[in-house]
Design goal:
Layout (H helix, E strand, L loop, with lengths): L1 H12 L2 H43 L16 H7 L5 H10 L20 E4 L5 E3 H10 L12 E3 L15 E3 L11 E7 L2 E4 L6 E4 L10 E4 L9 H6 L5 E11 L3 E5 L6 E4 L1
Parallel strand pairs: 4-5, 8-10
Antiparallel strand pairs: 1-2, 1-3, 5-9, 6-7, 7-8, 9-10, 9-11
Bound molecules: zinc ion.
The site of zinc ion has 8 residues, from loops.
Length: 269
């Protein structure tokens, strides 16, 4: 056997042209093998990188923000993906449908997504829960924008497809009776600030009449501090006040504008 190899080697060495061809052939083979190996290493790294990114994206738990590192049990990833939507994700969805900048139809305050949200299915305006509670208590659950009784809780903000901003009508002493059940803005002189017998309800009188007879802004018990406190309210006497609120007609107390927070008292002159 070694004799055969020796004979071939001797014949090749005696033929320089064949030696050159064989050398080139081996070099080409060597380059091909090296390239193949490089390609395999690159593909392997890319695959690992993609897997790692996919895991990083899907493995951040919305509620715990716990990251699952590469190599951990993949069953954990499945558990995480189906957890409830985080507040951050809700805000992203809200941005997509431009909820930001919309105001509560009753208070006029910017919608806050950390609180429970309601929407009128008819005219599409929004309410925070505290405003909806006032509509339940004082407006027969009717929307202050359209007057319909179609307000529902928004359980998934991504389901909102239409939106609307309520711009309250401007009421005056001559026309306020037209806006019963609606949110209005009103500017008037404060003739008197009256308190109920227990001192827990306030009537800021826009007419120089008795509580039940005159048009007024009312602040109910439990809302006094939110509306600036007793001193602030008493100091409205003798001023001109611009207010935004729900205009209603109470069968005993008469026409009144209900406010629930100080921001609804838009200006004091
Ligand atoms: Zn409505």
């Amino acid at each position: 056997m070694s004799f055969i190899f020796k004979t071939i080697a001797l014949k090749i060495s005696s033929r320089p042209d064949i030696s050159l061809i064989l050398s080139l052939f081996f070099i080409v083979i060597l380059i091909f093998i090296i390239n193949k190996r490089k390609q395999r290493i690159h593909n392997n790294r890319t695959f690992r990188s993609e897997q790692s990114q996919r895991l990083e994206y899907s493995s951040v738990s919305p509620s715990t923000n716990k990251e699952i590192r590469w190599g951990e049990n993949l069953q954990n990833v499945d558990k995480v993906v189906f957890q409830e939507i985080s507040e951050q994700e809700i805000k992203i969805s809200a941005n997509n449908i431009n909820i930001n900048g919309l105001r509560d139809a009753f208070t006029g305050v910017d919608i806050n997504l950390s609180s429970v949200l309601y929407q009128c299915l008819y005219c599409k305006v929004f309410y925070q829960k505290s405003s909806y509670d006032i509509l339940v208590e004082a407006n027969n659950k009717e929307c202050v924008s359209c007057g319909k009784k179609n307000i529902v809780q928004v359980t998934d903000i991504r389901s909102i497809v239409k939106k609307a901003q309520h711009e309250p009508k401007i009421a005056t002493l001559d026309n306020y009776k037209e806006y019963v059940g609606r949110s209005v803005t009103f500017e008037g002189y404060v003739f008197d600030v009256k308190t109920s017998k227990d001192g827990q309800n306030y009537a800021i009188m826009f007419e120089d009449k008795r509580w039940c007879e005159g048009f007024k802004m009312v602040i109910f018990r439990g809302k006094i501090d939110a509306c600036g406190g007793k001193n602030f309210i008493n100091n409205l006497r003798g001023k001109r006040v611009v207010v935004r609120g729900l205009l209603r007609h109470h069968p005993f107390f008469g026409y009144e504008i209900i406010v629930s927070q100080q921001s609804m008292i838009l200006d004091v002159k």
